[in-house]
Amino acid sequence: QVQLVESGGGLVQAGGSLRLSCAASGRTFSSYAMGWFRQAPGKEREFVAAISWNGGSTSYRDSVKGRFTISRDNAKNTVYLQMNSLKPEDTAVYYCAADPFLSPVQGGTVPRHWGQGTQVTVSS
User: Fold this and answer.
1) How far is residue 101 CA from its own chain's centroid?
2) What does the pLDDT look like over 77-117, one tens digit per residue?
C-alpha cells in the first residue's frame, strides 16, 4: 500500500512559480511510476506530467511543456512538480498518483494510488 501526501500549493500571481511535492509512504516507492493530475472546477481531472520509476522517462501534457518539470528523489520518497510561468488556466486542485506501471500515470487508465490533492490558484 502506498499513501501519498501533496504539499506546496497556494495562491500565486500569473507568471509566478510554485513547487509541488508529493511524499510517499512505503518502502516500494522507487518501484512506482508517478504522475501529477489536476482538476479545475466544473472540469474533468486531466493528466499533467508523469515520470518513470527511475526518472529516465518523463511526459507532459502539451499545455505545460516548457513550463512544468516533474522530478523525483527516491531516497526521500518524494516526487516534485516545478511549475513556472503560471497562468490563470493552471488553477486547479493538483493530485499526485502512483502506479506500478507508467501508462496509468500518463492518463492511460486510472492509477492505483492517489493523494488528497493540493489547491493551486493563479490570479491574473
Assistant:
1) 16
2) 999 999 999 999 999 999 999 999 999 999 989 999 999 99
